[in-house]
Design a protein that fits this description.
The structure is a single chain. α1 packs across α9. This protein is globular. The chain contains nine helices and ten strands. The strands form two sheets. An eight-stranded mixed sheet has the order 1-2-3-10-9-8-5-6. A two-stranded antiparallel ribbon has the order 4-7. β8 and β9 form a beta hairpin. It is α/β, with parallel strands linked by helices and 232 residues long. The chain is 29% helix and 22% strand. The protein has one domain: Rossmann fold (3-Layer(aba) Sandwich).
């Protein structure tokens, strides 16, 4: 699990995610070192990107943080991550993962979408309603449909990213909205090679990840990424 970056309590959310994984029988290696995370891919089944690592070229307000957190993913690391998924690995990109690795052109394809600086934004943290995407049953295959089968809507306090750029081959699985706001695609899934990818836009803080409904959904995500039958 790669963590680290600005304006988020990544250590707190990493601990919550590791707890969810532990309940699924998975032990987590948590690191802020991108090289260490990429080097470990040969020996793991899952890679969680719970970080905010990009070039920070978008606004002068990021200048105070650039020395520590600005990052360009080397092409070799990008190929290693793509190869990991192609050969059957599971990738979960959480929340700020949609902003990461902007110097690597293939990342947007691998994740199945991304933050678009010209239009994506988020209102302040607030009470949000989350539901399975209504179009899922029409568009998704049976494997992806299992991620939300029988799942009810729930509420939690989190950030809802608006106007994310979702790729055509991604299948939106969850939508979210703030009170009286428009529904936004916040989670999607796709298959890449023999591996699987989920982007999940929630998880700003530990409180969100302690919500029992949220935890249950993330447990499903990890099982699906490991290619475990969700009906079992």
């Amino acid at each position: 699990m790669l963590i680290g970056g600005i304006h988020h309590s990544f250590e707190e959310t990493a601990a919550e995610l590791a707890g969810i994984l532990e309940e699924q029988g998975v032990v987590s290696l948590i690191t802020e070192d991108v090289d260490e995370a990429i080097d470990a891919l040969d020996g793991v089944a899952l890679f969680t990107l719970n970080a905010l690592r990009w070039r920070m070229l978008n606004h002068d307000k990021y200048l105070p943080y650039m020395d520590r957190w600005s990052y360009e993913l080397p092409n070799g690391h990008g190929r290693a991550l793509m190869d990991f998924v192609n050969r059957g690995g599971g990738l979960l990109g959480l929340h700020t993962a949609s902003i990461c690795f902007d110097s690597w052109p293939e990342y947007r394809h691998l994740l199945g979408g991304a933050w678009a600086w010209e239009r994506t934004f988020h209102p302040p943290l607030g009470s949000a309603e989350i539901r399975p995407a209504p179009s899922q049953a029409d568009e998704a295959g049976p494997s992806i449909q299992s991620l939300t089968a029988g799942m009810a809507s729930f509420e939690l306090r989190d950030e809802i990213y608006h106007c994310l750029d979702v790729a055509a081959d991604s299948r939106v699985i969850l939508e979210g909205r703030l009170p009286h706001g428009p529904w936004q695609p916040i989670s999607w899934a796709r298959e890449q090679g023999t591996g699987r990818v989920i982007y999940h836009g929630l998880g700003h803080d530990g409180a969100s990840l302690r919500n029992r409904h949220h935890r249950a959904f993330l447990a499903r995500c990890y099982r699906w990424l490991r290619q475990v039958d969700l009906s079992s």
